[in-house]
């Protein structure tokens, strides 16, 4: 189906972002084709799924993710901030998420790093992916170009993508130089000409993060292959699946 639905940090409009609850809820939606998530490293080099470099916003912990080991991170509550229903939800490991999603949905795994914050991140993430033979089910993305280069050096066959919220004139050349076949871009930067150029070069483009139904409809006119990343996959369903359903009924009534 065109305009593939990407659940941003899982079904994060309802469940606490980047938790197994959010991923489980996303997997329950038959129209969710991809899930986007963020990966960092614990102090003892376990790949963990969390967005912020610090713990305060999405857990009851304090300080930096990188300063706590896996056992310590597991003691934190990563759900109560969202709703009391999710009290006790944990920060998941990448391994747990891969095991849950394997064979069910594709994964956009953001390598969440800055400079040399996590020198072993790429290797640790690739180890978990290769161990499960999921190379064809993932794309590794990042704002950090060094992380993308390291990923390609370690595993040339792995698909990679640049995350960007800008519109440089030589974007296509930058992607080619990075060996990226995927682009994750802030949706206001996209237009029809850019989509035509990039898709013509074999680049898959994902727009982030789109929660407004009106904007979803507007983006859908840019190109049929544009992927849409949202915190609310049910709104994607309302815009695309229900619209197609109504159109089908309209056409069926016309030909009766």
Give a description of the structure.
The chain is an alpha/beta fold and 256 residues long. It has one domain (5-255): Phosphatidylinositol (PI) phosphodiesterase (TIM Barrel, Alpha-Beta Barrel). 34% of the residues lie in helices and 18% in strands. The chain has helices at 20-27, 70-73, 94-101, 121-131, 145-154, 171-178, 192-200, 213-220, 233-239, 241-255; strands at 5-8, 32-41, 47-49, 106-111, 138-142, 160-164, 182-186, 204-208, 227-230. Strands 1-2-4-5-6-7-8-9 form an 8-stranded parallel barrel, surrounded by 5 helices. It comes from Paenibacillus brasilensis.
Brief overview, please?
It is an enzyme of class 3 (hydrolase). The chain has 256 residues and is an alpha/beta fold.
What characteristics describe this protein?
alpha/beta, 256 residues, globular, eight-stranded parallel barrel, 34% helix, hydrolase, TIM Barrel, 10 helices, GP_PDE_dom, PLC-like_Pdiesterase_TIM-brl
Low-confidence stretches: 245-251
Give the CATH class: Alpha Beta
Rounded average pLDDT: 94
Assign the CATH superfamily: Phosphatidylinositol (PI) phosphodiesterase
What's the CATH architecture?
Alpha-Beta Barrel
CATH fold name: TIM Barrel
Q: What class, by secondary structure content?
A: alpha/beta
Radius of gyration: 19 Å
Helix percentage range = 25-40%
Tell me what portion of residues adopts beta-strand conformation: 15-25%
The beta-strand count equals 9
Q: How far is the first residue's CA from the last residue's CA?
A: 27 Å
Indicate the overall shape. Answer: globular
Strands of the widest sheet, in order across it, are 1-2-4-5-6-7-8-9
Give the SSE string: EHEEHHEHEHEHEHEHEHH
Counting structural domains, the number is 1
The biggest beta sheet reads: 8 strands, parallel, barrel
